[in-house]
Every structure is written in C-alpha cells, then in structure tokens.
Amino acid sequence: xxxxxxxxxxxxxxxxxxxxxxxxxxxxxxxxxxxxxxxxxxxxxxxxxxxxxxxxxxxxxxxxxxxxxxxxxxxxxxxxxxxxxxxxxxxxxxxxxxxxxxxxxxxxxxxxxxxxxxxxxxxxxxxxxxxxxxxxxxxxxxxxxxxxxxxxxxxxxxxxxxxxxxxxxxxxxxxxxxxxxxxxxxxxxxxxxxxxxxxxxxxxxxxxxxxxxxxxxxxxxxxxxxxxxxxxxxxxxxxxxxxxxxxxxxxxxxxxxxxxxxxxxxxxxxxxxxxxxxxxxxxxxxxxxxxxxxxxxxxxxxxxxxxxxxxxxxxxxxxxxxxxxxxxxxxxxxxxxxxxxxxxxxxxxxxxxxxxxxxxxxxxxxxxxxxxxxxxxxxxxxxxxxxxxxxxxx
Length: 394
Description:
The protein is 41% helix and 13% strand. It has 14 helices and twelve strands. It has a seven-stranded mixed sheet, sandwiched between helices. Strands 9-12-11 form a three-stranded antiparallel sheet. Strands 1-10 form a two-stranded parallel sheet. The longest helix is centred in the middle third of the chain and has 18 residues, at 187-204.
C-alpha cells in the first residue's frame, strides 16, 4: 500500500517554510534559543488586542441551549452583517451580510473559491513571487497555477499579465500586502487591471475573476493604504482572515466577500456555500464567529512590526544586502548576494540565521525574512548577516 503519487511529489517539494521552521527548532535545542536567529515562519507573535480576552471570556460563559449546534453553511447572519459593515468601508462598495461567507481561515476561503470556480484545466494567474501553497490550493480543484512576472519592485506588470492571458484563464489571484515582498498594489493599477478584464469580457464573452487574498490588510507602514479590490471590478472576490490582524492564526477564522453587483451573484453565492459544506468545512467555527463579530474595529498594534522593520533595514544595509522596503505585512524579500538563493540560505544557516529561499515563492535569487519575532533577535543577528554576506562574496 502506498500514498497517492501526487501527494508523494508534494511531500518531496513541500513547503520550504515549514522545513526551515522545523530546522530552527532543532538548532535552538542544540545551540540555545538566544544563539539562533529564526526568521523562517510568518507566525505572528504580537499578542491579540486586549479586547479579545475579555470578549472570549464573556462568550465562553454563554449557556444558551443549542449554542454549539449546526448553523447555516455561510455562517451566522449577525456575524456576516457586522463584517459587511466594516468591509463596506474597506472595499468602498455597499456590502450586506448576504454578500459574506464565513470560512476556516483565508486558506479555507481560497479553497472554497477555487472549488466554486474552476473546471479541470482552468488557469489561475498569479504574480510572482507568491505564497508557496497557492499552487497546491489550485491543484486541489484540478486547476493550473500559472505565474507572471512583476517589475523590479514587485509591482504588477500589466503588459505581462495581458500577454499571459489565455482561453483557460479563469482567475487572477492577488495578494496585497504581499507575502513575501510586503508590496501593496496601487488603486490605479488595480483599476487598470479591472478595465483590462472588462475588455476581455466584451471581446470574448469570457469572465475572468479577480480574487484578492488580504490577511495582511491592516498591517501597513509609513502611511501606506491598501486599495479596495472590489472597487476595481464587479467580478471580484476577497478572501481574508483574522490570523494576522488579530494574531489568531490557530483559530482558523476567515471569510469571503463577493462584490454586491457581481453578475449571477446568487449562483456564485450558492456555489460558494455548497463548496464550504462539501469540502468538509461545513461552517466556520461557531465560537470564533461570535468572538470576531465584536472585534470588527480592532486590530493588533502594527507599529510593533514597523519598529522591527526599522531595526532590520540598517542591519541589511550594513551587510550590503539589497532589498525593496516593504509597505506592509511582516516580511522582507532581499536579493541574494549570489545567484543561488538556496546556497545563500545554507550560508546563512552556518551563521545560525534561518531564512527561506526565494525559489519556494516562485522567484529564485531572493530570500524571505519574517520579522514577526522579538526585536532583540533582529538586533542580535547583525554580525551574523555581515559574516554571511562576506562568506558569500568569497
């Protein structure tokens, strides 16, 4: 007996992020916590807002009969209405509770969307670099992930996107603020992309959906703002979660927002709701739905991440490592001093620095550093980065 061939292949090339994280645990046990600089995993360490614990305790004492029973597959309506009120401001379109579906995190949301949209062989176009597991999510539903280059600062290249469109293109998947680069796509660029897809629709009759993965929306720096995707196209959906903005990744609570004026919206909502059920999620966790309903205007203190970024950039500067300053999220995606990013990450590891090679994100020649770690770890890594950069030059 053997596992599926596809799963064996996926296992062999599985997430470099997790592999480095596991290696970090081994190294910390061997050398000591303070001797290892682990920037591998985007696991937010900033505590949830203080309101979270208070609401958590209040809801935990509710003994209303049936409170832990089944619910409508899209989630509690009062939760979706609370979320729609906030998202109407964020997305600059008037959303109602009926336009929202609660999910098991943003990963669950994306799988639900792909299940609802993709026929076998349909293509999902994603700008590179991109979150490593997108390809597996698309493959789950018999789709094909197709990458398209970004510009030198990781902004969308509209000409490249247009050239990459085929008769099989069904979705353009965006992630802003981006993991791994921290880039934020400007409103004007998103509108131009929406206009391009409208032209495709008029010429060919084919609908290409814009899907935005937005778990980092509320973690931004230097006065930047995240543009509303739903403003750019009526054939657009937003997938997101509370994993980063409330530091609740383990609670697996997220959502999908569907443009209120989407063509055949009710058919879309029906497909999403059915997908949520038959994929085995059934519904998002009831307890956490009730919690986040009361936290719509609350987020973690992103200034902590901004301070860490301010500490990290001079360290890379002094080591002679070039990078594009991120505008949001909590990642840096520097250029490797040598062409082989895997080799450079091995050099970093010799200095007890754990980073993830860029090829895992679809863009070799770079590497990712997650700065959701204590600032003391960042500052203590300065000499190790200098040593690694010097070793790479040799």
